[in-house]
Amino acid sequence: MKYRLKIEVGLKLGHSDPEGETTARLLRELGYKVERVGVSKVYNVVILADSRDEALAKAKEMCKRLLANPTKDNYTILVEEEK
């Protein structure tokens, strides 16, 4: 079966996020009452797997091996069946 993975990778709190800080500052300059902005990356992956559990396990493996640095990144995974 085909599964669609949405993997979002972002910095853990306490790590420097220059792009987020710049974006927050610029939004404030435009008049928005923004406290903080965090920037993240989203990976949309279509994968073949025998089950939803296998697709999730593969997504976690992808994060650990390539997409996320466990020292500084958090990640979330959404798995949906591709129709």
Structural features, described:
The protein has one domain (2-81): 2-Layer Sandwich (Mth169, Chain: A). It contains 2 helices and 3 strands. By secondary structure, it is an alpha+beta fold. It has helices at 18-29, 52-67, and strands at residues 2-11, 40-48, 73-81. Strands 2-1-3 form a 3-stranded antiparallel β-sheet, covered by helices on one side. The longest helix has 16 residues, at 52-67.
Brief overview:
This protein is of the alpha+beta class and 83 residues long. It is built from 2 helices and 3 strands.
Features:
83 residues, alpha+beta, Mth169, Chain: A
Task: Estimate what percentage of residues fall within beta strands.
Answer: 25-35%
Shape verdict: elongated
Task: Please list the strands of the largest sheet in the order they lie side by side.
Answer: 2-1-3
Number of domains: 1
* Number of helices, where a helix is a run of at least 4 consecutive DSSP H or I residues: 2
SSE order and pairing:
Blueprint: E1 2-11, H1 18-29, E2 40-48, H2 52-67, E3 73-81
Antiparallel strand pairs: 1-2, 1-3
